[in-house]
Structures are given as C-alpha cells and as structure tokens.
Amino acid sequence: MKHLDQEEESGVYQRAVLKNASPYHYMKVRLVLEDETSRLSAVELKQFILTGLKTLHGEVGAAINFDLLKYDEDTLTALLRVYSSGLVKLWSSLTLLGSYQNQDCAFRVHQVSPFLLALTGNSRDLQLD
Amino acid sequence: MVRVKSRYLLCEVNVSDRSHLLLLDDRSVGAAVKDAVARTHGDYGAALCSVRFCVKYLNAHTGIVFLRFPKRCYKLLWSALPFITSVEMRGQKIPCFLNCLHVGGTIRTCQKFLIRYNTQQLHRMLPKCKNEEEKQQVRRSILNCSQAWGNKEELEGEGESGEDEEE
Amino acid sequence: MSVDLSSTPRTLLVCERSSFQEEKNRVSTQVEQLRFNYKVSLLLPECNSLPSQLESVLDSFTSFYLIKQLPVYELLDKDFLETAVYQGNVYGLSYKTRIDEDNCVALLPNGRLCLSLDKDSFEVLGFEGKPSKFNHRTKSRFVISVDLTDRRMAPGGRGYQRLLTGLKSRLQLQTDFLLSHHPGGGASLQSLLSRCDWSEHRPQMSQRGLTELSCPAVHSCDPHSLLEWLGAVDADVTCENSSSSFLSTLACPEPKTTLSRALSVSVCGLLLPQDIQRLIDQLRCYLQQPRLESWVSLTVHGFADSPVSWGENEHGFLKGGENFYTLLMFHNHTYRLHLATGAHDACPP
C-alpha cells in the first residue's frame, strides 16, 4: 500500500484487491446462562473465556490474544476481537464452554466477520411489524 | 493402495545420571509425551494424541526412542516435546529432556539415520578412549556398523526412498 | 483431513482511490450494482447537527413495503409485470429468510427473478437452474435466475407457463417479501399490493452525537485499520485503551488527532441505490462549504441474505455474509472506496 500513500492527493485511478489480508476477526457473542438473573462483569467474562481456551487448547490456546471490545452486562452480549489465526481456536472453545460456576451455559455466536463495520449492520436484525 | 501415513520422530532422552536410563520403559515415555501434549495443547491435543500415537521402539541403553505420530498433526504434537521435563518411572520422577534427532516417514529411514548417527558418535568417542583395549573395541563396533550398512546398500542400490523424507 | 486451525475462509477487500473528476471513476456504477442495501451510515466530523440539505435527502428516501405471506407466483402476475417490472426498477427481496437455510427470492431492478432453493424444493419445482457455486460438490443448493423481460418469459410463453405452474401447483412457495419501486413508488405496485396483506415502512433514521473522538489520518491510514476505526465509532467501542489493558487493547491508529465533536447518522430499511446516489451527490455539495474537517465517510451495508450481491454475482452466507462498501470523500473531489465481501461472494466490481 506504500505507493498508494505517496500519490494520495492526485486523483489518479488506483485499485488494489486485498485477499485474506484482514489481521483480525470480530465476533458478536451472547452468553446464555441457566439462571437468567445472574450477571458477570467484563473481567469475569474474559476470564471465563480464557479458562475455556485453556481446557480445549491448553497453554498454547490460553496464550491467544483476544480483546473484549464491548460488553453489555444486561444482555451478556460481547464484541470480541481476535487475530485471524486464533479465530478457529477461540470459536471452538466458545462452542464447548458448557458450564459456568456449576450452572449450564452456552455461547451464542451471532455474527463473525473480518470487518468490525460489518457487525454494526446485520440485516438479520431488521425488525418490521 | 493408499497407506495411512505417519511420521516417526527419532528422539534421544537426555538424563543427568545415565544409570537412570535403564529404568525407562515405553509406557512411561508415552505417558510423559501424552501429559505434555495435554498440558500445552489441551483436550484438542490430547485427542489427537490418542489416535495412532505410540512409542515404537526404546533403547534403554542409549536412551533412543521412536515416537509414531499421525502425519496430519505431527507438527502440533512435536511442538509439545520440549515441554517434557521429567519422566515418571516406577514411582520415581527422573528429570530429563527429549532431543529430537530426526523425523522420518518410515521406520526404515529412521533406522538408517540412527545407524549413521551412532557411527558418528563412535567416531567421536574414539579419541577419548583411555587405553588400547577400549580403542580396539570401538573400532570393531564402527566396522560392524559400516559393514552391516554397506552390504545392505550394495544389495538395494541407491534406491533411497526420498519420498519418505520430510516434505 | 486438514487440521490447520489458523486458516480462515477467504475474504476480499477492494481498495480504490480516485477523484470524482477522473473519467475512469466508477463510483456510480458500483453504488448502483449493490442492489439490496440494508443500512447507510454517515460519519460527519466536526458537525453538531444534521445540515438541512442532508436531512431532506435522508427524509426523502423511498419507502418500502412488506408483504406478508406472498405466494411467489404473484410476482409473475401479468398486471404486475406490465405496470411495475417493465416500467422501471423493482427491488424485491424475501424477508426473514436465511440464505444458508431457507429458500430465498429476489427480484432485481433489471427484471431478473432469482430463486435460491434447497435441493428438495428445486427438484419439486422442476425448473431449470444451476447448482450454487459455493457447494457445487454436494449440490445441496440451487439457483434459478430468469429474465422476466425476456420473450420466453413473457406471459403466455413456454418458460413462463412452466415456472408459473411449478410455483402454483408443485412448489407453493410463500414468503414475507420486501418490495420497493423506483421511480414509481407505491403507485406502481398497487396491482400486487391490492391482493395481499401489506404494510408500508419508512427507512428509520437515527443520529448520535459524539464528542472528543480520536481520529486517525484518514488520507493515509491503511485500509484495514481505517475500517476498524470506522467500525469502532459505529459500534460505540472505545478506542482509549492502554496497551497493557487486560480487557482490550484496541487503539486508534497513529498518527491521530482529536475531533471535538462528530455526528453519526444511520438509516435502516430496504434502501435503493438511486437514493444513495442522491445522498452522495448531496454530500459532495456539503463538502464544498468551508469547514474544519474536509472529509465525510459513508458506509452502505448490503443484505446478508440476498441471493445476489454486486451485480448478478451469487452471494452466500458461510459465516458472515457481509457485503458492504465504505466511501470516504474529501474536499478536493478525491475519494477512497473500500468494497468488502466475505467468503461466499465474487470479487466486487
């Protein structure tokens, strides 16, 4: 992309196609707990996901860097950011996380995308009626 | 015909006290490997390690082990080997580490390598010998190695199976 | 069997840079080619309240209609074809159907009817179609694409009869349907609406004022960081994190400046490319006025479950179904355009 930057002011037509170049993937997930009144703080949620990574993928898995970009405590909905190379490991460990403090739980993965922008415009959320 | 492909890792068990080597058995080495894999790669690694993993050969005198891994995941399992720091044998914990010498596609290529490697080691031992008797003994073993090897190679020609080597 | 855990399905990002004054710029075709737009969001830096010209354009977005339980053969009705399809641009898309599970229907403005059917429905319907590009091995999904303006598909023609009887007697496909018409609006659709249970909907607009926003150098920022930042602004994610934070290390790309305020506006619904084109023209006028920051960004999200994305290229979902573009316009008529698609999509134009 270097050569593009140099000519930023000129209006010459330039086109570049980037394939699989996204460094991160973003996930929108929701934690469903058996007891719907219990709440988790953001730190607890991240710690919980980390324990899941550690059980399924061991110490190597627990070393995966991921960010909790946004978390809503009322709906237990979170936005995660993870390096593309760690997406499969994170996703699989979310799937297999089945209990939180001795109560059944599950992660619902609402949307996964290499672009954070795509998570703000999910047409499946369109509610008319 | 398609065969199930494996990778054989030729490893050397390094211990501080060589007498401990005699205590080694394949089950304890296998358990140590499985343990390390489960720790570093979790349930996923443990599951990969439960299929077609085995300790094929163990030489308690030299501390040489052959580990067989499925080909599709040997890199992942291999990455756990440096994390082995001890092997538990008959209730005794022996500190050790595994040194991987060779990766091969068949036991045969690993054997070839091992013989070459042992000859090399004998050559290294030669100058360190203290008396003439020892020297003679070492020379004889070197000769044995190369003879056994030489005859074989003449018979089979240079048809060394390159396909079995690392891809 | 592959056990490579670090690979992900392919994604494409097309980055373009040009000027509106450059002859080769294709922004208007690119805008027009993304037919089914779900959401438009604008980011106006250093702006307090929505300027009246922009507001009037946003307010004048064409309204769309939701038809409950529309039998799909109604789309082949002779009156409807004559008053709506032949006369202009009809945008129709099945609503609340998922392209990876259900049967989806789309009516494109050029008069093409696209049906994306599972194997069972396809075989019951008995009409000619092609296996979907994205699972051609298993052949579990089929795409039927017919040109309703073609002579063969004119009412009474052989293909027309076959499809009509198929949809009427064999595969009685019913679906909720979103419909819009350009330029006629509701009047052109009356012949169809009168026979169905329908409701009219206006695109929903929402505004959000932002203050003290850190902002990267939009001229030179690398595309992925730029899209990440725009996404963070849109999703209301804070970029003020320290690099040692446990929760999140997301930060605004360097070099950065701080905007004292900004306005984020979004519109949701079935939006027509023509309306978006008008909005772009208005934004260019807006940029000509002297102001502190000389750029605006416009992001348009397509429907994730539409059977087509850009042009007539087949679209699938896989794990996100994203198809959107971001247009960053500058004061001097130059622009940066980023078109992104997920795994089950062709390359954007």
Automatic annotation (TrEMBL), chain A:
Matching InterPro entries: Pop5/Rpp14/Rnp2-like (IPR002759), Rnp2-like_sf (IPR038085)
Entry keyword annotation includes tRNA processing: yes
An example Gene Ontology CC term for this record: nucleolus
Domain of life from the UniProt record: Eukaryota
A Pfam cross-reference name: RNase_P_Rpp14
UniProt keyword terms in alphabetical order: tRNA processing
Coiled coil: none
GO molecular function, one term: ribonuclease P RNA binding
GO biological process, one term: tRNA 5'-leader removal
Entry's family note: Belongs to the eukaryotic/archaeal RNase P protein component 2 family.
Name by which UniProt lists this protein: Uncharacterized protein
Name of the encoding gene: rpp14
UniProtKB/TrEMBL annotation, chain B:
Name under which the protein is recorded: Ribonuclease P/MRP protein subunit POP5
One Pfam family of this chain: RNase_P_Rpp14
UniProt-listed PANTHER family: POP5 HOMOLOG, RIBONUCLEASE P_MRP SUBUNIT
Main location: nucleus
Subcellular localization: Nucleus, Nucleolus
Keywords: Nucleus, rRNA processing, tRNA processing
Entry GO terms, CC: nucleolus; ribonuclease P complex
Residue stretches spanning the membrane: none
Family affiliation: Belongs to the eukaryotic/archaeal RNase P protein component 2 family.
MF term (GO), any: ribonuclease P RNA binding
Biological process annotations from GO: rRNA processing; tRNA 5'-leader removal
Entries under SUPFAM superfamilies matching the protein: Rnp2-like (SSF160350)
InterPro entries membership: Pop5/Rpp14/Rnp2-like, RNase_P/MRP_POP5, Rnp2-like_sf
Record function comment: Component of ribonuclease P, a protein complex that generates mature tRNA molecules by cleaving their 5'-ends.
UniProtKB/TrEMBL annotation, chain C:
Pfam families reported in the protein's UniProt record: Ribonuc_P_40
Molecular function as annotated in GO: ribonuclease MRP activity; ribonuclease P activity
Protein's GO biological process: endonucleolytic cleavage in ITS1 to separate SSU-rRNA from 5.8S rRNA and LSU-rRNA from tricistronic rRNA transcript (SSU-rRNA, 5.8S rRNA, LSU-rRNA); tRNA 5'-leader removal
This protein's GO CC annotations: multimeric ribonuclease P complex; ribonuclease MRP complex
InterPro entries membership: RNase_P_Rpp40
Top-level lineage group: Eukaryota
PANTHER family: RIBONUCLEASE P PROTEIN SUBUNIT P40
Name of this protein: Uncharacterized protein
